[in-house]
Amino acid sequence: MTPITAGSGRSLTDLFVEAAKQALDDSGAHRVDSIYVGNMMSGFLQNQEHLGALMATALGREGVPTYKVEGACASGGVAVNAAVKALLSGFEEIVLVGAVEKMSGYTTPEVTAGLMMAEDRLKVASTGVTFVGLNAMIAREYMHRYRVTHESIAQFPVLCHRNALDNPKAQFRKKIKIQDVLQSPLVADPLRLLDCSGIGDGAAAIVLAPKNVAKKFTDSPVEVAASTVASDTISLYQRPNITTFEASRQAADRAYKLAGVKPKDIDVLEVHDAFSILGVMALEDLGFAQKGSGTQLLGDGECSRDGRLPTNTFGGLKARGHPVGASGLYQVAELAMQLKNEAGKCQVPGARVGLAQSVGGIGSTVAIHILRGIN
Amino acid sequence: MTPITAGSGRSLTDLFVEAAKQALDDSGAHRVDSIYVGNMMSGFLQNQEHLGALMATALGREGVPTYKVEGACASGGVAVNAAVKALLSGFEEIVLVGAVEKMSGYTTPEVTAGLMMAEDRLKVASTGVTFVGLNAMIAREYMHRYRVTHESIAQFPVLCHRNALDNPKAQFRKKIKIQDVLQSPLVADPLRLLDCSGIGDGAAAIVLAPKNVAKKFTDSPVEVAASTVASDTISLYQRPNITTFEASRQAADRAYKLAGVKPKDIDVLEVHDAFSILGVMALEDLGFAQKGSGTQLLGDGECSRDGRLPTNTFGGLKARGHPVGASGLYQVAELAMQLKNEAGKCQVPGARVGLAQSVGGIGSTVAIHILRGIN
Question: Residue B47: helix, strand or coil by DSSP?
Fold first, then answer.
């Protein structure tokens, strides 16, 4: 992973290559049979597509099959899923999956418009509503329906900022309190600045291989126990209940079955907290709390690194950072570090099973990965 | 397939849904396990990403995993390849693959800039060179190196226009002569207007399933005998020889091996003739002619529908049309129609084995499909 920063001044290629080379060096793999690139906004912001061939060339790996995979903010997670299927097809044995996003260096209206590419342009984005606005509607409805206060929800970013203090690659390494969240500038009522992830540049990469091949390279491979993707309607207005992401539930259900585990077996969790309310909803949609009661886990300290369900242990989207198309891969890479006992000061002792949830658009695409340490 | 037109005034969704519904109706498949969408320019031109969830919603199929796959002008072919691997993974049984591009309704500089997203933005596109310009360099070098005249190369668009006369969905249904090509307006010396494919809107779709499943739906399924992708350097200046596309050779070599066929076994061929010179080069890179002698096949009439190697039988990119990210899927769909004996007036009698070559960028990504009628 590269550190996540705003104003890096670095190119897409530069960011991607740093992460990819780290992953290749770390894995010990000399050969790469294909390259999958997750990204959401390069066409709009950098006027650059064809990231597959671009990155293969930058890595001196041209010749291999390359794929850019896009699923809005879940692009990183969806790219991992596509790569897993490529491995299972038998066509490829060693696959490099990387994801990159460069969001800084543009005006706020530009980035805001870019993010709205995840919603229906003609019917919704054209109205002028922003993604913060859509999430504010969800937060308002959630607070009303379940009688939950903003104060309770604000525990989520507080948790993330605390965890990020120990992550040298995090974008925001600054402790915050609940009052800081509630007093930060209003962005879209009720969401305030510290409810929202920021704008950042970053890239992450992993190397995937079948178990028998991976064992040649490392004594501590991490198993992909499940990799699933589900979709939902592209637009929020098309949903009967906006306080749950059906795609999250569906993708998680299938993942639990594939991995043969239940929510109680998860030792470390990474959820897509682009906005504080999404972090809380994820705890519920993934089966860790009843609907409307997610914040109780936070209040009981269960989501802390020394709790029963350590969550967003490197700082999550809020504090580690959210370079949108890359975030799903940061999550998977962080889980892998946890399960290899290489998470440094962020380590959850004895973590064996991890789950990552990556969300694209307003819950319209969700990728779930369950990883298992196989030492 | 939708008809290809400029100025359709139709949305991406509208185009995609027409093609997808045709494909689903034609296949008889009620269930769809996943949706793959090939597209190159929607982020740049329509400010719309997340085409996976967008199209799933438009089809009333939300819930299933969705993927947007991008590989520049080869996006359609690359999407088919990714879907084939998904089937082989065993995760999915019935996959809808569609591809769509809407290029009309924008200024020529806008579309030209969008197409340059397939090259390296920072190092090449920033110089102001266009894709016609890059292909003109190739044409000039090819003509010089192999002593081939423009007149010989111009046989390619003449062939395509002749074939398109019989294709009701073709964009340009107008017979042209070699002299028309040579006298058409100069675009980038030596390439003239009739050497170049046009700007158009279109979508195509197919349904893929394992053989045993496909046989439940049709008595005449078409087998994907090989599906390969290869890459090359993102930029033309990085190549030792610009008159051959190494990725085309590599992808084709692997495809012939996988399918267990040789060039002489191909009954019908679809090549990526975005510019006349590329059509000629494809005949060589795919193994049908020695380097520098591709035009001889044209002169001998071998590429005509009644020749030994019927090529671009529905009009190719030049005359059927080239909605960039969708063209690779038009090719595959056209081959399928040929092999099912459903190609109407474009039919090549007795065609059993077909090959499609889809090129992204300046030969930086190439997808090859070999299909076989299994009646």
Answer: coil
CATH number at A202 reads 3.40.47.10
d(CA B357, CA B273): 10
Chain A residues with CB under 8 Å of B232 CB are 53, 62-63
Residue B75 per-residue DSSP state: H
Structure confidence by residue, pLDDT tens digits, B338-364:
999 999 999 999 999 999 999 999 999
Domain assignment of residue B69, given as a range: 12-373
Q: What angle do CA A337, A342, A348 make, to 5 degrees?
A: 80
> What is the spatial distance between Cα B49 and Cα B53, in angstroms, rounded to a whole number?
9
Residue B204 reports pLDDT greater than 90: yes
The DSSP code for B260 is T
Test the A interface: residue of B234, B358, B364, B368 with most A CBs within 10 Å:
B234
Are A311 and A319 within 8 A, CB to CB? no
Residue A335's CB is within 10 A of a number of other CB atoms, namely 28
Residue B244, helix vs strand vs coil: coil
Is A238 near chain B, with CB under 8 Å? yes
The whole-number pLDDT of residue B375 equals 58
Q: Which residues contact A163 (CB under 8 A, 6 or more apart)?
A: A305, A312, A313, A314, A315, A316, A319, A346
Mean pLDDT of B12-34: 96
ipTM, 2 dp: 0.97
* Residue B332 region by backbone torsions, left for phi larger than 0, else alpha for psi between -120 and 50, else beta: alpha
- The answer to whether residue B5 sits within a structural domain is no
What predicted TM-score, i.e. pTM, was given to this entire model?
0.98
DSSP-based three-state secondary structure for A370? strand
Low-confidence residues in chain A, pLDDT < 70: 375
**Exposure letters A110-123 (e unless 16+ CB within 10 A, then b):** ebbbbbbbbbbbee
Provide the shortest C-alpha distance from residue B349 to chain A (in Å). 34
Asked whether the beta carbons of residue B70 and residue A72 sit closer than 8 angstroms, the reply is no
**How many other C-beta atoms can be found within 10 angstroms of the C-beta atom of residue A375?**
11
Residue B80: what residue type?
V
Domain count, chain A: 1
- Residues comprising chain B, all counted: 375
Per the CB < 8 Å rule, is B234 touching A57?
A: yes
Amino acid at A124: V
The answer to whether position A3 is within a domain reads no
| Residues in chain A within 8 Å Cβ distance of B67 | 69-71, 78, 82, 229
Kindly determine whether residue A91 and residue B82, on different chains, have CB atoms separated by under 8 Å: no
Contact B360, B326 (CB under 8 A): no
- Residue A375's pLDDT is 58
Closest chain A C-alpha to B374 CA, distance in angstroms:
22
Per-residue pLDDT, A287: 98
Mean per-residue pLDDT, B206-216? 95
Within 8 A of A113 by CB-CB distance, chain B residues are 47
Torsion of CA A75, A80, A85, A89, to 10 degrees: 120
Evaluate whether residue A6 is within a structural domain: no
Catalytic residue among A160, A322, A346, A369: A322
Instruction: Give the other-Cβ count within 10 Å of A216's Cβ.
Output: 10
- Assess if residue A57 is contained within a domain: yes
Could you say which residues from 43 to 82 on chain A have a Cβ atom under 8 Å away from some Cβ of chain B? 43-44, 46-54, 56-57, 62-72, 78, 81-82
Q: What are the residues whose beta carbons fall under 8 Å from the beta carbon of A116, sequence distance 6 or more?
A: A124, A125, A129, A130, A131, B47
| Cα angle value B305/B310/B313 (rounded, 5°) | 70
